[in-house]
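Our collaborator T.R. sent over the components below with a one-line note: 'Predict the complex.' Nothing else. No constraints on interfaces, no templates requested, no preferences about which chain binds where. So this is a plain run: every listed entity goes in together, and whatever single assembly comes back becomes the starting point for the next discussion.
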Amino acid sequence: MTSTFKISDNKDEKCRVGTLEIGEKSYLTPSFMLYTKEGSPINLTKDLLNQLPHEKTHSLQLLFSDLFQFTDVLEKFEQGVHKFLALQDHLLFLLIRDSSSFVEAEFNDDSISVTTRKGKTKITIQDYIKLVKVIKPDFVTSLSVDIAWETSKKKATKIVNSSSIWLEKFLEANTGINTFGVIQGGKFEDLRMKSLQDLLKNKDRLVGTILSGFGTGETNEERNQLINKLIDQLPKEHVKLISGVGSPEEILSLVELGIDLFSTNYPNLMTEWGNALTFKYKMNELKNNDNQEENKINLWDSKFVIDATPIIKGCECFTCIQHTKAYIHHLLNTHEMLAEVLLTIHNVSHYLGFFEEIRRVIKDSQFSEYKKLFLEKRIQINNNSNSNDN
Amino acid sequence: GVIPPLQFEIIGKWGKARASKLTLPHHVCSTPMFMPVGTQGTVKGLTSQQLVDLNCGVVLGNTYHLGHRPGPEVMDSVGGLHKFMNYPRAMLTDSGGFQMVSLLQLAEITEQGVQFQSPHDGSTMVLTPELSMGIQNSIGADIMMALDDVVSSTTVGPRVEQAMYRTLRWIDRCIKAHKKPETQNIFAIVQGGLDSRLREICMEGLMAREFPGYAIGGLSGGESKDMFWRVVHQCTSKLPENKPRYLMGVGYALDLVVCSALGVDMFDCVFPSRTARFGTALVASGSLNLKSSEYSTDFTPIDSECQCMVCKNYTKAYLHIVAGKEAIGGQLLTYHNIHYQMSLMSQIRQSIIDQTFPNFVKSFINKQYPNNDCPQWALDALKEVNIII
Ligand SMILES: [Zn+2]
Ligand SMILES: [Zn+2]
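Returned assembly:
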C-alpha cells in the first residue's frame, strides 16, 4: 500500500512535524519506533500495547534477522505479517540494523551476512527481494549493512558501491513496498556524498532515507555535522530515519536537523537496567525552575522499598496509574517478569509523551527554546547528581 | 467471638457437587473456583488488571516468600498485599510451613514450630503459629491458612499421627494469635495422611472449633490417585455442608472436575502458569506443547472456541516462535492458561446450577480421553457420586 508523507511548513527551521499515512493508518513524526523481538514489542502483549497513551498507531522496527527465520511460515500464512504478529493497527518497518546492539556485519559484492538463532546465512539481493515480498511490511530498507564510524575507507567504499547497486536492483524488482534508501560511507564525507548522489537518482521512487552507520563510535559533533550536510541535499518530502541513536539529548539535536524517525531501543535499555525515565519534558515544567527531579531513577535502589507513590505522579501510563515504586522495586528484587513489563510500559509511554511534546513545540514554533531549556535542565540535574555522588 | 467476614451461600447442587456464592471482604466469588498462584505478589508476568480481565476471584500469595521479601514491615507500611500489588479482589495466603518444609533442606518441626536455617544469613529461626499469623495479618489476605504440621502423603507410621495431633494443638495457638478476625478469615487444614481414622479425628477436632472454611491438606504429594480421591471423598462427606472446602495444591483439569463432583469448592495450583513458561498451552483435549514443530505452520488459535485475548489475536504458528523462548511467549501462554482454568470452572459451576453436571463431566472426559482411556481412579470416583461414564 502506498504511503504519503505531508510535512509542516516551518519557515527557517529544519525541524518539522510530518504525517505519515498508509491506508487507514495515520502516524505523526518526529517519533520513535518500538523495538521488537521475534516481531513482538518486548513485554507488550496486544492488550498492553494498545492501551499505551499518547498515540494510537505505533511504528515498530521489525528486524530482518528475526523475520527471516519465519518467512516460510509467513508465506504459507498468506494473510500478512500484520495479522500474524497481531499488529494490524500499527506501522511495520523492516530494518536490517538492530538498534540494540551494533556488530559490524560481513558482506561482499553480492550478499550480506545475517546472523540468526541458527547461525549465519548469506542473503543476496535476489533473496532479499523475494523475502521482502513475502514479509510485506509497510516500509522496507533497501539492502545494506551498517559499518562502524572507524571502518577503513576501502570497506566503506565497498559498502557504498554495493548499496547503490542493490538499491537499483531492489527498485527494479517493483516490490510495491514503500522503500527507504540508505546513505552509507562511514566517516568519509566524500563517500557519504557519493552514496547520497546515487540515492538521489532514485529519489522519487523512495519514501525516505536512512542515515546509516551512526551510533557506532562517532562523537555527537561529528554526527551532527555530517547529518546536517546530508539532509540539506535530501528531498524535503523524504522521511528521514536514523537507527542506533536515541538518548533524549541526541534526539533533540537530530530533530533540529530534520530527522523524523528514530529506530532506538533506549526505553528498553533503561528497562533492562531497572531504570524508570523521569525526566521532565513538558515545556511548562521546564520553564518552572524549582522542581529538582532526577532524569531517571533506578528502581533496584532500596530507598524505594516502601515508596507507595507512582514513578511519576500524573503520568498517564498504566504502570503509574496502577502501581507504585515499592511494588516495582519488589518485583525487580524477586526477579519477577512483571517488573520488566511495568517498566517497559512506563518507559515507552514516557518516550511517546516526550515525542508528543516535541511535535507540539515544533508546531508552535518553540522548538529552539524548548531544546535550550531541556538541555540546560538536563545538564543542571546531571551536575547536581554528580556532586551528590561525591 | 467475632463473626468471621465470610458468607457462603449454595445456589445450586448436583449430588455432592455445589455451586455457591462466596462473599469475602474484597470480592464476591463464585465457586467451584480456581485460584491462580501469585507466589511473590504477581502471577508470572500478568498485571493485576489482566487478572481482573481474566475474571479471577481469589489470588494466592505465599507467606514464606512474602514474609522474606518484601517482609511484614513493608506490608504493614504499604497497607497489605491488596494495596501493594493493587489487586482489588480477594486473596488467600498459605501458612508458610509447607513451603519451608519443601524448599529448605534443614527445616525441622518441633512443638514450637517449623525450625529452619535462614537461607540468607544461616541463623536458626522458627516459624511458630504466632509468627505465621502475624505475617499473614500483615499481608492482610481475605483468607489465611492455619499453620499445620505437614508430612508428605507417602509418609507412614507414628509420624502421621503425631503431625495430625500437633496440627490440632497449633490451631488453638493460631486462633489466639489472629489479630484481625473482623477482616480476615482463618481456614483450618485437615491432616491425617491417608489414614481415614486420623482424618476423622482431625476433622472432629477442627469442626468443634467452627472455622469459616476448611482445607484438605497433605495430598498431591505423590500418593496414588486412588488413595487421593478416597481421602477427598471422606473429607467432603464429613466437613460442614455450609462452609467452603478448599483442596490445596490441586489444579489439573481432570482433578478439578472430579473433585468438584466430590464437593470441593476451591482449588489452587502453580501448574497453569509454570507450564506456560515452558511453552505448554492447556486445551479441552489436554495440553499442547507449542514448542513442537507440528505447530510451526498451524494458523489456528490455541483453542478456536476460547474467547481470550490470546486466542482472538495470535495463532499457534506465531506462539510456536516465541513459546518457551521470549518473555512475550510466557506472558501470552500464562494469560491463556489462566483463562482456560477460569473457563473450565465456570462451565462446571454453570452445569451444576443448570442440573446438567453429569453431561458436562461426560463431554469433558470424552474430549480429554477420546480413546476411552480415562484413568480408572477418576471413573471410580465419579461412579461413587453417581456419575457413570
Ligand atoms: Zn508512567
Ligand atoms: Zn485462549
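Summary for T.R.: DSSP finds 16 helices and 16 strands in chain B.
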